[in-house]
Amino acid sequence: MGNPRGFIEVQRKLSGNRPVNERIDDYGEVEQTLNDEDRKLQASRCMDCGIPFCHWACPVGSKIPEWQDALYRGDYKLASDILHSTNSFPEFTGRVCPAPCEKSCVLAIHEEAVTIRENEASTVEKAFDLGLIQPKIPQKRTGKKVAVIGSGPSGLSVADQLNQRGHSVTVFEKDDAIGGLLRYGIPDFKLNKKVIDRRIRIFEKEGVEFKVNTAVGEDVKGADLLKEYDAVVLAIGAMQPRDLPVEGRELEGVHFAMDYLKQQNKINRGETFSDDQRINAKGKKVMVIGGGDTGSDCVGTANRQRAEKVTQIEIMPKPPGKRTADNPWPFWPNVLKVSSSHEEGCERMWSVSTRRFIGEKGKLKAVEIVDVEWKMDNGRWKMDEIEDTVKVIDVDLVMLSMGFVHPIHKGLVEELGLDLDQRGNVKIGDNFETSKPGVYAAGDAANGASLVVTAIAKGREAAANVHEFLSK
């Protein structure tokens, strides 16, 4: 620990966001950066605790005190190497991770946690700028071939780990570009896609092969892959969205959030859509149903498309502004989250349920909602509608952002006849192997929708088990 009094002498300082009136005119990253000296000072605030709760809370087990100290001392090579020892692409998590590490930082007791996420992103960018991150080409090849299905955070993590162990890895992606959820599920204003492209170029130089526009289970049969490859890893995510089967669901103007976000990201890449295909919020009253991060991303996208008004509703109660007694540190804080998208303009409503969509000539015109109350009933939470609280709100465009239920079964999962768990996820054993010998599953496909950093961690674990299988 370079400065044992850093957490006393230096106040927590965030890099902050670009001004609202500037950033809503483009899709550039919202977050700003601190200068090198300020960043080193922020790293000096790490206490190098006897028990590093931050390390415990991080799904990839990032060795946070160690690389914070290296950053403070200006040793960007060492800091970058430590980060990469547990994470194949810390530049992604440094931008989009909700930072469970910070919530568990000892200084979070006083709401002054070390700026771990920002420090991570800054460290990796500095290492790239200095040319310290270069391809690491495996010196030996095992002769074993692995097919990875899906190029999201879990699939890329699997591919990197197995490639570095000397196996020949081919990644199959159904879309036109590599990245999965990172590419098309996260808006550019949170993750500039040049950051993904930069890392993919490194993986390609290291020997990973990528095949886009290839839907395994349709364009390529899973059975054929099993003949050609020694192991197959499913990293297809949990992309089956939770629907809202209420009256009027079929109306024009009601869309899944991911369809909306994916289309805008494609437009940012230069793709064009006809007027009847385009989901455009310009001049419209928009309602986002669901209060999570994906819903927040829809809010930010609608603001950039110049929506007339954006409303976000959530069926759960409004969280408290600060931790309550039954939600102590170092556990995840169940508190109100205000994203950069909310700052740009959004009316938020809690404890609200959607009753029906109202249309005219097949087009959405309004949404009927009702207030709800949550009560404990025999140890379980129960929701009841509150009488005389029904409201009708004028709405032109609805985004359904209520999470994802499980991976898409149609195609590869059904073709291979894989066993599923009670939630509809691909069932795996302790070694990540599915019910089909030689077929493994990693990330959201097996564990359900979760964080990017969790998908990375599960990808690394799966890769270790696949390597053990291939080494027999």
Describe the protein's architecture and organization:
- It is a single chain.
- This protein folds into 3 domains: 124 residues, Fumarate Reductase Iron-sulfur Protein, Chain B, domain 2, CATH 1.10.1060.10; 161 residues, FAD/NAD(P)-binding domain; 160 residues, FAD/NAD(P)-binding domain, CATH 3.50.50.60.
- Helix 6 packs across helix 9, helix 10 runs parallel beside helix 19 and helix 14 packs across helix 15.
- The protein has a 5-stranded parallel β-sheet, sandwiched between helices. A 5-stranded parallel β-sheet has the order 6-14-7-8-9.
- The chain contains 19 helices and 16 strands.
- The longest helix is centred in the C-terminal third of the chain and has 19 residues.
- Strand 7, helix 15 and strand 8 form a beta-alpha-beta unit.
- With 472 residues, the chain is of the alpha/beta class.
- The mean pLDDT is 96.
